[in-house]
């Protein structure tokens, strides 16, 4: 893979992981009766920032 491939796929992969994490959190929190606002700012943001730091 060359740099252009990574420049396209890495942000897309990060966005997909973040989206699936968000969906998983919503269903898990709904099932366990936990407010989503307690978990989303931590887990989702950490995953997003990790993915973004690899992009930089």
Structure description:
With 56 residues, the chain is mainly alpha-helical. The chain has 2 helices and no strands. The chain has helices at residues 3-32, 36-55. The longest helix has 30 residues, at 3-32.
What is the secondary structure topology, with strand pairs?
Elements: H1 3-32, H2 36-55
Helix pairs in contact: 1-2
What is Rg?
A: 14 Å
**String of helices and strands:** HH
**Overall body shape:** elongated
Report the sheet-strand fraction: under 5%
Q: How is the biggest beta sheet arranged?
A: none
H/I helix tally: 2
Can you count the beta strands? 0
Low-confidence stretches: none
Structural class: mainly alpha
Mean pLDDT: 72
Give a quick set of tags describing it.
0% strand; 56 residues; elongated; single chain; 89% helix; mainly alpha; 2 helices
Short description:
The chain is an all-alpha fold. It is built from 2 helices and no strands. Helix 1 (3-32) runs antiparallel to helix 2 (36-55).
């Amino acid at each position: 893979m060359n740099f252009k491939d990574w420049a396209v796929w890495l942000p897309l992969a990060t966005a997909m992981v973040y989206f699936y994490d968000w969906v998983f959190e919503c269903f898990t929190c709904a099932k366990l009766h936990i407010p989503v606002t307690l978990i989303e700012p931590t887990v989702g943001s950490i995953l997003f920032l990790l993915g973004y730091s690899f992009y930089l």
